[in-house]
Specification:
Layout (H helix, E strand, L loop, with lengths): L5 H17 L9 H13 L5 H8 L9 H5 L5 E3 L3 H25 L4 H9 L3 H28 L1 H10 L3 H14 L14 H25 L1 H5 L4 H32 L9 H4 L1 E3 H7 L1 H21 L1
Antiparallel strand pairs: 1-2
Helix pairs in contact: 1-2, 5-6, 5-7, 5-12, 7-8, 7-10, 10-12, 14-15
Amino acid sequence: MEITDPKLKEILLAELRQRLKTRGLSDSDLTEEQLGQMLIELSAGLERKADQIAEAIKPPTPEAPAPEKLSKVKEEQFLRLSLNLRLQHFVMLSSIVILIITGLPLKFHDAAISHVIITFFGGITNSAWIHRFGATGLIGVGLFHLLYTVFTVTGRRDFMLLLPKPQDLKDYVKQIKYFLGMTEEKAKFGRFSYIEKFDYWAVYWGMIIMIGSGLMLWFESFVMSFLPKFILDIAKEAHSDEAMLATLAIVIWHFYNVHLNPHKFPMSKTWITGKISKHEMMDEHSLEYEEILKTRTGDEAVKGGRS
């Protein structure tokens, strides 16, 4: 019998030399045959050091991450909203909240809560000025977004992608079938789904109605100098009803899809961080994800060709 494992042989040889040293000998005093025989006998009688030898010759096993470590592994993130868009969204969000809490009490002025809110803001005059402050923010972000859309590459790209197309109707029908269990395949979306397009154009149309009618009511005397009163009456009704419609759309449609949806609850942080996870990208924007992978593959091929 011969010891073929070099690591085991090295350990046994070190042990043998130590034992010979205690007797005033060295391995050079032994013949190769004696040395080999003693190593074999030593290996056979080395039970108490078997664990040490096994650990020394056994390749290290990769340590499996603990459950708490697995949860901390960062998933790849994709930029969804730039800082510019997040700031636009924040200004719009703040403005709309101000407009809702100061505007709806005027529409439902008989409600007890309306009196509480108006009193909280210091009376109807103060409430009206705060409402106009919110309106100024909405007008400002609306004009800024218009310039952003026209004069930036990203703005023009997103605007074109947000235009409704026949495919959106097909995706809607396919998604309804998926929800009803009529098919196992969900609709695949690019950068914007029909839900996000509805969100965008509802806000776009709502801003035109709200800002247009609101300015007419704000500068009532000026408008009355060249338009009949019934036009202002129409503007007042349009402003009031569109405000109610916008509030319901935000609370029921937008807020649910972005925050209360079981896949998002309790809140999507994209409006804060601007990013979505790889899982969200593959699930909600699979066509865009495929385009990103193709672009990465192309870039790697170009770099490889240059090298």
